[in-house]
Structures are given as structure tokens and as C-alpha cells.
Amino acid sequence: MDSEDRAALVGKNSNDIVAEISPMFITKDHLSSLSGTQWVDGEVINLYIKLIEQRSLQNPGMLRVHAFNSYLYEKLQEAGHASVKRWTRKCNIFKTDIILFPIHVGGTHWTLAFADTKKKVLRYCDSMGGDNPKCLSILLEYLKVILIDLKCFKLIILDRARGEAKLSTER
């Protein structure tokens, strides 16, 4: 954190809001997870990924991004598609170029899965070089259900082990 950022936080209570992208916000307490050896707070991840999405929408030359929050994968894992079905009710996520899925692995490590709708693939990224076939399988199934609900695409699995799938307009 640079001195300007630190100055903005001086005198703030730990629950005071220091940044907001409606309806999400970050408090001083959330930001404290960025220093020392603490685990990065999920709300920090969610706000940052939402900033990426907003930036893509405000700049016509950039790839359009849809960013899910970090709770999506957790909900899918626990209760399946029905528990998050309304999250995409008002938007067709496949009209964007990139779909981001932040994944909190074991409560200790953040990874990212993303769907590239132009190249029609789903990938899993882990800074520690890990793979997560279970995660990819859950996300592939989720995307498949959304595509079937939209009645506009068919999902073709290319290589489940590598986390690759192809979205086809074939019916």
C-alpha cells in the first residue's frame, strides 16, 4: 500500500466503507487483508473483479467481461445450478467476450477460471501450477445448463482433463 492509500485509511473505523461499486463495498477491515501474511479477503477479490468488468463496459475497444463473484462456485459446488439460476436471469453472459470465475480453493488460495466465448474454451488458471478437474467439471456443467436454457448453443467437450470445451451454434 502506498502512502496516499494509507493516508486515506487513517482515522477510519474498521467498518467504514472506503470503496464502493454498488451494491458492493470494501471496508478498512477488508483492505487490511492486503498487508502482512493474511489471506486475501473475498470481498477484495469481488470488488476488484467487478472493477475489471466495469472497465470493460466503459471502454468500447476492450474485450467485454462478465465477472461472477467468488460465491458462485461455492454455491454451485454445494447446491448446484438451481441455487444460482437467477444470477443470470437478466443477462446473457455469452454476449460478452470473457466470463470470469474467481475460485477460492480450500479457503487458502485464489485461482481463476475463465470462459473465452470468442475462442469458445474454458480454462483454469492457478499461480501455483495446480489443476482442478472437479472445478472445471462443475463450471462446464453450469455453462451447459445456461446454454440449454438460452436454447442457442450446444456445448461440446473437447478435453475435460485440460478443462477445454467448445461452444457450438449447432443445434
TrEMBL record:
Q: Which domain of life is it from?
A: Eukaryota
Record key words, sorted = Hydrolase, Protease, Thiol protease
Query: Which Pfam families did the record assign?
Result: Peptidase_C48
Q: Where does the chain cross the membrane?
A: none
Q: Which InterPro entries does this entry report, sorted A to Z?
A: Papain-like_cys_pep_sf, Peptidase_C48_C
* Domain (Ubiquitin-like protease family profile) ranges: 24-171
Instruction: Give a yes or no for keyword Plastid in this entry.
Output: no
* Family as reported in the entry's similarity comment: Belongs to the peptidase C48 family.
Name the UniProt record assigns to this protein: Oidioi.mRNA.OKI2018_I69.chr1.g842.t1.cds
